[in-house]
Design a protein that fits this description.
Elements: H1 4-9, E1 14-15, E2 18-19, H2 27-43, E3 47-51, H3 57-64, E4 69-73, H4 77-88, E5 96-99, E6 110-116, H5 119-124, H6 126-131, E7 133-145, H7 149-158, E8 162-169, E9 172-178
Parallel strand pairs: 3-4, 3-6, 4-5, 6-7
Antiparallel strand pairs: 1-2, 7-9, 8-9
Length: 183
């Protein structure tokens, strides 16, 4: 199977003059891609949710690493079309489900949720992202800078997830949280 990141780099990121974010070169995409690849190899999640999928690179990595249910959401119909076109290049037996639904539409069924979007939308989605996680599921957030990290960390801890670690590339950050086990 081709490397989803390399295959994506060969594709145009625009359709009819509009640009879709997520060609794999931005530091936040690289942070998320590395984390998704590592976590899929280590934890072997069955279900992965990619919120704000853009071109679909993170969903494609999860699929290439063995996830059996992959849902990729975006509010931009152009992004969903672009992600679907890129996904079709892989000729993989597992389909990625593309949707405009809210992250918690499927309930708490994801072992791994990744959202590489800006700080303001991340704040607005905190409860929905947390509700999409299975107990002990992991949540990866990126799309924000180092100065924005402390406030987002506190905000998400208030939404009920437990901080695990923080990573940086250049001035950009990635936060990892875990959904606590049920009591």
């Amino acid at each position: 199977m081709p490397n989803p990141v390399l295959a994506l780099a060969q594709l145009p990121q625009s359709v009819a003059g509009a640009t879709v974010f997520g060609d794999g070169s931005h530091p936040t995409t690289r942070l998320c891609a590395g984390a998704v690849d590592f976590l899929c190899r280590q934890r072997q999640p069955k279900a992965v949710l990619d919120v704000g999928t853009g071109t679909g690179v993170l969903a494609r990595i999860a699929r290439a690493r063995g996830a059996q249910l992959i849902v990729a959401t975006d509010i931009d119909p152009l992004a969903l079309s672009c992600a679907q076109a890129h996904s079709a290049l892989d000729a993989h037996a597992v389909d990625i489900q593309f949707s405009r639904e809210a992250p918690d539409h499927w309930g708490a069924r994801f072992d791994l949720v990744v959202a590489n979007i800006l700080e303001a939308p991340l704040r607005g989605l905190a409860t929905q992202l947390s509700r999409a996680l299975l107990p002990t599921g992991l949540l990866l957030l990126s799309g924000f800078t180092r100065p924005q990290t402390p406030a987002l960390r506190v905000f998400y801890e208030g939404a009920g997830v437990t901080f695990v670690r923080e990573s940086h590339l250049d001035e950009w950050s990635l936060l990892m949280f875990e959904n606590p086990k049920p009591r």
